[in-house]
Amino acid sequence: MNATPDITPEVQVSPAEAPAPRPKRQFRPIDRIAAAVVCLLGILFLNSGFEGYDLLIWLALTLLLAATPFYLRRFSITLTGKKILLYALLPLFALPRLLFDSGDVYLLSHAFVLTGFMYIVHLICADTGRAPGECFVPELAKAVFAMPLSEYGAAPEAILSSKKKGVGRAIGSVLLGLAIAVVPTFVVLILLILSDSSFERMLDNLFTGLPEINVGTLIFSVPLGILLGFYVFGHLWACGTHALGGGVKAETATRFKTSLRFAPVPMVCAAVFPLLCLYLLFFLSQVPYFVGGFSGTLPEGLTYADYARRGFFELCTVAVINAAVLLGITLSTRRKEDRLPLPARITAVLLAFFTLTLLASAAAKMLLYIDSYGLSRKRIYVLWLMGLLAVIFLLGLLHQFLPRMRTAALIFAAVVLFVGIFLFADFDRIIANYNVDAYLDGRLETVDVDMIGRLSAGSTHALLRLYDEAEDHSIRERTAVYLDRFAEREYEIADFNFSRAAAQTAVKARPEFERGFVRNLQGTLGTGG
Questions:
Q1: Is the backbone of residue 53 left (phi > 0), alpha (psi -120 to 50) or beta?
Q2: 10 Å Cβ neighbour count for 317?
Q3: Continuous H helices in 74-166
Q4: Which of 189, 192, 185 is nearest to 222 (CA)?
Q5: Which has more confidence, 333 or 491?
């Protein structure tokens, strides 16, 4: 008996059920210009790093931020009302590159501006009606990853596109070709320089007077800068064309939150209860050790350094653990409404209260440590971080009693505020002034001149005061070394920022540093007090 072959009939898909083809991108001249400019800005940004070219980088960021609203009009998207105020945060937080002289400030400023640019432009174009901070994680993930990556090929396609297939395509091809040629050209250049001294001398004569170019940095900054430009333009194109359906839909956000609420209330409380008991017992057993930070007294047998190290970092670690636990309670507890059930709410309140107590004790201990050893970047950064954590925990605590409070928007505002404090407070100036003042009025027995000298230009005025008023000749000599080095530095106009310019003006106004103080050290210090 012959077996009948198993033939599966071909399934016919109606046109209505078939997935719609991806619409072809239609570019205008403004799109080609925008894509090319963004790629050039990416190269400039990566080539500068976080040292030098401060004026140029600030101008580049300002150009990007100022031109974006005009470019969005190409998609009939206009900034009005609250959108203008929200977008105005970006150029404001780009200002520290022009005002100050700190790599840490530059790093946070760039990270905040670029991430905020992706997030805020996404909110403006999606027009979901949500307040900033609401549905934050899904919206941020969509803005930073999904949107730009979905249209990553828009920039090269825009640069190469042209209706007449003439000049525009030729210019785009030339630009991409030059970008591809960067790496092999420089490799060959280096090999030729190493192989022939006359060729090296010819290049030296040819480029005399031009600013120095870091070949290694350029090799990596050009291709990576172009890729960064593709990323930013892809984000703008995706937001303008409402790719991926715009913002996160309300029902999607609700379904996502509901899917996380898997844990029954008894399970949540039982999981956290042993931890609370352990924290309580630990806190009671260490009352003289931890709470001593509030009274300024030390437990017997401990120095200030040992006291801070053995108590402070433990408290910070506990605070981080509690933050993770509190987030887990909020996200995973099963409930029918947004408010936590009463047992879970009591658990969250106890955890938040305990964490606030630990943070207050840790801050008191750090202030005691600073009072004895002075300020440093790490110490002031830790105080800043603890302040931010305390505000977040306080808002989380209030949310348990005021469920209608817009907690997400308030936390977003708090983060923006604390980032602003970090960027505009000029911590290096605060550190230098505090340490010099404490040394000169006798609160500190010594002052770390090397630490202050390695700070940014904001510390220069404090160093000048230390040089004028210190009675210890060795401290004055060490201070003079850093001031003299700063006076001898030469900067191009592209490196300008206000902090550095003010500091150099103050130092060079002193005749001893203008002529090279270290070289005339003996004669100048002979009359010092």
A1: left
A2: 12
A3: 82-94, 96-99, 103-126, 136-141, 147-150, 154-160
A4: 185
A5: 333
Spatial separation of the C-alpha atoms in residues 12 and 489, rounded to whole Å: 76
The span from the CA of 226 to the CA of 455, in Å, is 33
Which of 48, 132, 47, 62 has its CA nearest to residue 96?
62
Compute the chain's Rg from CA coordinates. 30
Closest CA to 355 of 411, 459, 287, 280: 280
- The structure tokens listed for 234 are 């892809």
Within 8 A by CB and 6+ apart from 93, the residues are 109, 112, 113, 116, 419, 420, 423
Q: Which range (256-265, 267-276, 301-310, 455-464) has the least confidence? A: 301-310
3-class DSSP state for residue 51? coil
- Give the position of tokens 């002034």: 433
Q: Token pair of 505, please? A: 């003006």
Instruction: Tally Cβ neighbours within 10 Å of residue 74.
Output: 13
The average confidence (pLDDT) of the chain is 81
Q: Are 380 and 418 in contact (CB under 8 A)?
A: no
Name the 3-class secondary structure at 333: strand
Please provide the DSSP assignment of 168-237 as one string: HHHHHHHHHHHHHHHHHHHHHHHHHHHH-HHHHHHHHHHTTTSPP--HHHHHHHHHHHHHHHHHHHHHHH
Q: How far apart are CA 391 and CA 410, in angstroms?
A: 10
pLDDT of residue 175: 62
**Token output for 514:** 């203008």
Coil/strand/helix, residue 95: coil
pLDDT of 231 over the 90 cut: yes
Phi, psi of 286 (to 5 degrees): -115, 20
CA angle 494, 499, 500 (to 5 degrees): 55
Task: Name the β-bridge partners of 263.
Answer: 333
User: Mean per-residue pLDDT for 334-362?
Assistant: 88
Residue 510: DSSP 8-state = S
The mean per-residue pLDDT over the stretch 300-320 comes to 67
Angle at 215 (CA atoms; ends 210, 218), nearest 5 degrees: 100
Q: Identify residue 278 by its one-letter amino acid code.
A: L
Q: For residues 422 and 406, what is the distance between their CA atoms, to the nearest angstrom?
A: 25
Question: Is the pTM for the entire model greater than 0.90?
Answer: no
Provide the residue type at 463 as one letter: L
Cβ-Cβ contacts under 8 Å for 209 (sequence gap 6 or more): none
Other CB atoms within a 10 A radius of the CB of residue 85 amount to 9
CA separation for the pair 271, 276 (Å, rounded): 10
Sequential DSSP letters for 379-445: HHHHHHHHHHHHHHHHHHHHHHH-TTS-HHHHHHHHHHHHHHHHHHS-HHHHHHHHHHHHHHTTSSS
- What pLDDT does residue 6 have? 41
Q: Please, what's the b/e burial string for 140-155 (b: 16 or more CB within 10 A of its CB; e: otherwise)?
A: bebbbebbbebbbebb
CA distance 198 to 215: 20
Sign of CA dihedral 362, 364, 367, 369: negative
